[in-house]
Amino acid sequence: QVHLVQSGGGLVQAGGSLRLSCAASGRSFSSYAMGWFRQAPGKEREFVAQIIWSGGVTNYADSVKGRFTISRDSAKNTVYLQMNSLKPEDTAVYYCAARVVSTRGYDSWGQGTQVTVSS
């Protein structure tokens, strides 16, 4: 079982930056993909970004491409989401998640962290 603990987030003005962290424990992650999702009030949870642990291949939602960067630190078993040029529409609860690369569904989730962007 993968255990994910998130940190970071908070309140920032539009145009500002924040970094989210997700510390993973419980196993080796060489066969895993790690993702970030978000859920705004009244909306469904949506995909933000993903990184394949082995090799570091990334992909992003169109809405964050060019502004957000997902990365991982293998020595710390930690995944990061660097968020730049934040917009009020980025306001949401952000979740990190993990899945085995060979599966489609994320099945381990962090506790969630609030990101609020003021205009």
List the helices and strands and how they pair.
Layout: E1 3-8, E2 10-13, E3 18-25, E4 32-39, E5 46-52, E6 58-60, E7 68-73, E8 78-83, E9 92-100, E10 108-109, E11 113-118
Parallel strand pairs: 2-11
Antiparallel strand pairs: 1-3, 3-8, 4-5, 4-9, 5-6, 7-8, 9-10, 9-11
Proportion in β-strands: over 45%
Class from helix and strand fractions: mainly beta
How many distinct beta strands? 11
- In helices, the fraction of residues equals under 10%
Main sheet makeup: 7 strands, mixed
- Name the overall outline: globular
The number of distinct helices, counting runs of at least 4 residues, comes to 0
Distance between the termini: 40 Å
One letter per element, helices H and strands E, the order comes to EEEEEEEEEEE
The low-pLDDT segments are: none
* Rg result: 13 Å
**Overall pLDDT confidence:** 95
Description:
The structure is a single chain. The protein is mostly beta strands and 119 residues long. Helix content is 0%, strand content 55%. It contains no helices and eleven strands. Strands 2, 4, 5, 6, 9, 10 and 11 form a seven-stranded mixed sheet that branches. A four-stranded antiparallel sheet has the order 1-3-8-7, with no helix packed on it. The protein is globular, with a radius of gyration of 13 Å. The N and C termini lie far apart (40 Å). The model has no long low-confidence stretch (mean pLDDT 95).
